[in-house]
Amino acid sequence: MAIEDDAESCGSRAVDSLVHVNPRHHRQKLDVFHQVLNRIRHSNYAEANLPGFDNHLWLHFSRLPARYALDVTVEREEDVLTHKRLLHLAEDPANRPAFEVRMVQVYPVFPAQSIDSVHSDSSMQEDAQSAYHSCRQGIHPPPTFGSSSNLEALALQARRYHVEDGGSAVNSTSGPFRPMHEITFSTVDRPKLLSQLTSLLAEIGLNIQEAHAFSTTDGYSLDVFVVDGWPSEEIEELKNALEKEILKSKLQEQSYSRKSSVMTEHVKERVVSLPSCVEIPTDGTDVWEIDARQLKIENRIASGSYADLYRGTYCSQEVAIKVLKPEQITREMLREFSQEVYIMRKIRHKNVVQFIGACTRSPNLCIVTEFMARGSIFTQSSR
To answer: What Pfam family is a match for this entry (predicted)?
Structure first.
């Protein structure tokens, strides 16, 4: 699988603002825009007659990275209109992810002498060359972003298998040029989106041969996949399979969201049912209660099942802060917390980390000790 990867690769935001735009890329993007616009006008697309169409088309190119304009096949102006339409549909949450499916055909690229080697007779060479160039017209159009060497190699391999099986090298309508599907998605851009889309395609048995991923300046994505593996050329069947898989994915997300909500409410109930303040036995001779507002928690340095350990400061002193996880708190944990504070405040020894204080009021239950910059004895002994 070939995925385009450069400075503006998958998941990266386009930054073609007037401040950061690359002048050369801007000129190239403008040139592609004019070429596509002229082709749309000459092809008499109804959209071209809508008020402000020119501005809307330029906005489409402007919101996408320069790589989009540089890679798109200018002769496929209808694909640009499809991308523009999908991005517009994705603005409505009910349409996400918006997608389109079409058949594409990829052809191998090989030098003229490879054709010559098939037929030594001059008339046969002419027939082969004529057939090769005519087949480039194709039953189906090429991919939106041309053909990478990866796709062309697959097509060339298929051609070789066809000839080895006894097929004609000049027959442009049979096996060597295998059709594929191009699937384009648009939705709100988010982390791990590309991974989710590739998983969705894999679930219905599709093999990704090439992918192009773009992010717009206003937070949307445009992801184009060239795939094979679908058993027929029927587009509607593939669309139905995609819709079912998307619905299945949405239902799973909703189920997960409901479970998370129930767990959150359960945690709240547990916290509410616990006392607002942990009682620590005292003899009245020391003061160890810390005002949480005077604590500054910084980076986390360790984590356990019931508490996280942070580095921080207390009254300008560098400290270690052990914070109990609210969702894990039980009455038994509170009892152990109370006992730990009671014992630690009684211990003063040069070989034992110094206890500074504790916060005993929910939800800021924590124990504050001196910070040992060189780590624990275990850390030192294992070096």
So the answer is: ACT
Instruction: Assign domain 292-381 one CATH number from 3.10.450.50, 2.40.40.20, 3.40.50.2000, 3.30.200.20.
Output: 3.30.200.20
Across 9-18, 118-127, 158-167, least confident range: 9-18
Cα(188)–Cα(90) distance, rounded to whole angstroms?
A: 7
Contact 278, 365 (CB under 8 A): yes
Q: What is the mean pLDDT of residues 367-372?
A: 92
Q: Which residue has the tokens 């079409």?
A: 102
Decide if 246 contacts 330 (C-beta within 8 A): no
Domain assignments of the chain as residue spans, ordered by start: 2-106+178-254, 292-381
Q: What strand order describes the sheet that includes 355-359?
A: 295-303, 307-314, 317-324, 366-370, 355-359
Of the two residues 59 and 178, the one the predictor is more confident about is 59
Nearest to 96 by CA among 189, 210, 181, 204: 189
Asked if residues 66 and 20 have their Cβ atoms less than 8 Å apart, the reply is no
Q: How far apart are the first and last CA of the chain?
A: 42
**Residue with structure tokens 């060479």?**
125
Q: Which residues contact 59 (CB under 8 A, 6 or more apart)?
A: none
Helix %, strand %, coil % for the chain, to 5?
A: 45, 20, 35
Quick one: which of 371, 379, 339, 341 has its CA closest to 353? 371
Distance CA 382, CA 377 (A): 9
Task: Give CA–CA dist 210/327, Å, rounded.
Answer: 44
pLDDT-based confidence at residue 249 (cuts at 50, 70, 90)? confident
pLDDT tens, residue by residue, 185-206: 999 998 888 888 988 999 999 9
pLDDT value of position 133: 45
Number of helices (H), then strands (E), belonging to the chain: the values are: 11, 10
Question: In which band, very low, low, confident or very high, does the pLDDT at 223 lie, cut at 50, 70 and 90?
Answer: very high
